[in-house]
Each structure stands twice: as C-alpha cells, then as structure tokens.
Amino acid sequence: MKRTIRNILFVVFLVILMVVTGCVTGRPLEKMGLIVAMGVDLLPTGRIMGTAALYGIDPNAKDKVAVLTNTANTLKGIRTKQNQEFSNRLVSGQLRVVLFGLPLAQHGIVNLVDTLARDAEIGTGVYLAVSQDNSSELLKNRFPEISNIGTFLYEQIQQNSRHEELISTTLHEFLHDFYSVGKDPVMPLFHYMNNEVHMSDIALFRDDKMVGHFNAQESFYLKLIRDRYKAGTSEIALRREVLDELIPKKSKYSHDDMFYVVISNLESKAKIKLIRQNPPTFQITLHAVSQVHEISEEISLGTKDVIRKLEISLNQEMKKNIEKLIARTQKLNTDPIGFGEQYRSSVRYSNLTREKWRRLYPKAEFTIIVHNTLSRTGIMD
Fold this sequence. Notes:
Blueprint: H1 2-22, E1 32-42, E2 48-55, E3 65-72, H2 75-85, E4 89-91, E5 97-101, H3 102-107, H4 110-118, E6 127-131, H5 135-140, H6 149-162, H7 171-179, E7 186-193, E8 196-206, E9 209-214, H8 216-226, E10 233-239, E11 258-276, E12 281-295, H9 304-332, H10 339-346, H11 354-360, E13 365-374
Parallel strand pairs: 1-4, 1-5, 5-6, 6-7, 12-13
Antiparallel strand pairs: 1-2, 2-3, 7-8, 8-9, 10-11, 11-12
C-alpha cells in the first residue's frame, strides 16, 4: 500500500515538473540585444546621455557591434528609449564595462552606480572606468583593429589587472570604498588618440567625484602601498652621480644626468601603522623583492657590493616617489590608500566621519621605510 502511494506521488511530481518546464519561455540569443559596454555622459542641460555597445550575434553581419545613444534624466529612462528603437529586447546580463565621461565623473556618480547595483541583471563584477573624452565618442568610434569596442575595453582592463599593471575597480569595489569612511575609490582612465585606445592612468575620486589622476608611474607606487603586489614592472630613474663609479662608460643611449632601471616586482607587502593621533602620523614600511629586468647603462651586477649599492639607490628613489605621491593625495584631499580606515581602526572611540577625515588628512604626517631586495638579477622570465 505504501509503495503504491509513493509511486502515485512520484508520477504526480513528474507531471507537475513537465508542466512547469514546458511553460518556461525560451530567450534565444539572436532575439536579444546583449549590452557589453555602456557609457554615460553629462549634458549641459543636466540630462544624461547613455550609449550602449551591443554584442553582434549574427556572424554574417558586417559590423560586429551596434551602438545606441539616447538621452534622458535617468538610466532607466535611457533603457526604455533604447528598447523602443531596437528590434530586439536589450538585456544587461553580459554587461562588462561602464564608462563615465569626464564631466560626469567630476560632477558625481554615486546615484548612477547605486542604480547599477540595484539592477538584478547586472553583476557586481562589472568594471567601472572613466573616459577622458565623452564616453559616447569612444564607444561610437570605429577602430580598425577592434571588432567590438566593449569586449576590447573589458579584456584590456582584465589583462592589465591580472598582471597587476593597474588598479581596476568593479562595481562592488567602488561601492565598498565609497561607503568606507576613510578611503576613496579609484578607476582606470581611458582616452583615445590617433585612432588608438589607451589606458595607463588612474582616476582619483574624493567621495564620488573625480578630482585628479595618477600616471602609470604613480599608479605603480599607489598599488605598492595599497595592495599586496606579486607582478608588474616599473622604470625607475636614478641620478648617475649616485652610482657613477659603477658605470665604466656611457652607452650610446646615455642621458646626461640620469640612467634607468626596470624592475619587476616579484612580491611586496606594505604595513601601515598609526604612531601618533594628533596630528595623524603614519609609518609605512614596504618590504619588496624585485628583479632587475633592464638597465640603460653597462653595470655589472656580478658582485654583492654592486647589488647592495643599487638596492640602496633604488630604495631612496622609491621612498622619494612614495612621499611625492602621498603629498599629492593630501593636496587633492583624497585618500585612495585608506589611511583613514587605519586611523579609525586604531583609535578607540574616534567617531571618524568623512568631514572629520577631510580636515585631518591634509595635516597628516608620514614616515616611509623601504626595504627592496634585488633577486635573480641575471634571469629574465
């Protein structure tokens, strides 16, 4: 009897399952507009202009990307207009990159980022970036070597962040840094010239407004202090006078006062410690192991004495560059490294607010200690 009841229940379950699965509506790819990249720009009227770069499903199509541009007061309003103009239903499940035009980034973007975060179709791993020009101009431009600009931007950010050449920012990371009292977000900064897309700078934000940017060299030091580093390269300029006795003769590529060392950072870790509350005083100790990839002069690295002198010179130059970088963030009153977070966690009952840290940070003092050890000076990967 019990077996009969179980068999009946199993049959009923199968019937229900077949009915339910039969009612699911399929969504063929060729009937959807897959948005790969989206650009948002601020218009003089205060409205926003949205540009969507769509993935080309049809392999026989001449263009591998379709671009839609509309204006409205909100992102949802833009999407509604784009759906009215496009033959297929637009979906954001494949969205990989969101670009903000420079004027909009300087005006403030947190409301737009919050809207993106509330969209169930959009994953929190979407990359955010700033376009030095209007994002619509970059997305609508036809580049000879790029079949789909949205896919290209995504892959460019991904491979550079994977090899630790720059700091990338996802939707989740931006919101985390924005809502953390004592730390400001950063984003990759794109621009294009001579029909080529370039990304080497890092946009700096104060809260949700862009206030400046770092070039590739400054970004290297920012990443050294901000994150653990296990890859990446940097060209460091040293004055000839500090190692003049080690350079037997000038090469044909020599500069009068400088020579250059290219290092690959194999591993690094920065420790930030608050040593005084008022004014906030931090000690930054950077431990790194680096590999020499190239030197612009003929220097023999065959002895420990030569390597040690080169290490001392590199440490002094790295310390000076880190001091310049921090001084610049203080001038801009932006804290991309997160010294405010360290202050808040170290000072009991600090009651730190954004406004309080904006007053304290420009007055903060720093002691920089760099221990960079050169390893495998004769081996190239």
